[in-house]
Amino acid sequence: MKLVLLTKSYKDGKYCVAGIDYFTSKWVRLVSNDENYCGAIDNNDLIYEEGSIAEPLDLIKVNVNDSPINYRFQKENVLLNQKYAISKIKKLSLNEFINFYSPENHEVIFGNRYGIIDKDSDILNEVNSSLVFIKVNNLQIFKDNKAIFDHNGSKYYYYSVTDPDYRHNDLKIPSAYIVVSFPEHYYSQTKKYYKFIAKIFTL
Length: 203
Fold this sequence. Notes:
By secondary structure, this protein is mostly beta strands.
């Protein structure tokens, strides 16, 4: 599989890795068999043969298997074949990627405009995917790793930031492209699903 890597976001000390299939233009999330980390990808699995590490906007070649798990939300998940090293084909600029894959336009993101959904909410019936790539305005990030932003004329509140380049920051970004991810499991302590800003591409 050829994949344009878009996210390498923080997940329990490892990474949530996702991107766009270069041939089908469909979302793909790479997962592992590591149940202790909910399928997160280890940094060692993101090292190219020459020793450098995969980064967002890399076009990569990766070996995958169909996931044996029937996911409710994360239908994009495929199992990374960890027997083979990934390889880098080339690096894309943000403009090159935008020409390849247009930003999505959603009335709401994963059911509503808030970064939190209760585990028993009927809104979950409207969630049928777990990754989106959108353009936002007035993105404000807080040191507690929460964020608010505008999209498609509406304000969005309390999204969790897992992009390691922007965690624990306090800043305002006028315009950006972001990847938003929805989890497969709710957080047991609060019994809520949290939406994540997995990657931020500033303009």
